[in-house]
Design brief:
Elements lengths: L1 H12 L3 H17 L3 H6 L1 H18 L5 H28 L2 H7 L5 H30 L9 H29 L6
Helix pairs in contact: 1-5, 2-5, 4-5, 7-8
């Protein structure tokens, strides 16, 4: 966990583009040689779409600087998001919840619970996303078309609904069991 925090801090505060790209490549290569590479490679497509959106938004909406500076800032921002996400994906795919719980035993109980629930929901969100994609394709939805809004709305809305529903179920479960952080 300390490595995860140090790696994310180093990524967030570095300004060297070569270090960012090198770090991104190292995380990407580690995920490819990992035992859990099937899980990780399944997460690459949505992550790639997000990084492309970040790059495009930087190019389109940041009109206060030149095009080359916008492109550079977009690449840096997209690389940071990609690297941070891959680092978290790699961490959650290779570390069990029990190991995370043991490593966070020094924190207050509320913070431990919050972090454990967050880490445990990441894989389930990706499983839900796969199910939604499968259901939408079985209903005849063409996700290969170039209209991004038409492709994302039938995917994002059910995913948000299911994720928020799951979070609400966890909250109700915790309250009904009388969870006390002391």
């Amino acid at each position: 966990i300390l490595g995860l925090f140090l790696g994310t801090a180093a990524l967030l505060f570095t300004k060297e583009k070569s270090v960012l790209i090198l770090f991104s490549l190292v995380i990407f290569c580690l995920s490819l040689i990992s035992d859990k590479r099937n899980k990780l490679t399944g997460r690459l497509f949505p992550l790639t779409i997000v990084t492309i959106f970040i790059l495009l938004f930087q190019l389109i909406f940041n009109n206060s600087i030149s095009l080359s500076d916008r492109l550079t800032q977009g690449i840096v921002a997209a690389t940071k998001i990609f690297s941070l996400s891959m680092l978290v994906f790699f961490f959650t795919a290779t570390i069990s919840i029990k190991q995370i719980t043991d490593a966070l035993s020094f924190l207050p109980k509320k913070i431990q619970l919050m972090i454990i629930i967050t880490f445990s929901m990441i894989p389930s969100i990706f499983e839900e996303a796969q199910k939604i994609l499968m259901v939408q394709s079985s209903r005849g939805h063409n996700s290969k078309s170039l209209n991004i809004v038409k492709n994302l709305i039938p995917f994002i809305i059910p995913l948000l609904h299911r994720t928020l529903g799951r979070a609400e179920q966890i909250s109700i479960s915790i309250q009904s069991r009388g969870y006390d952080d002391k």
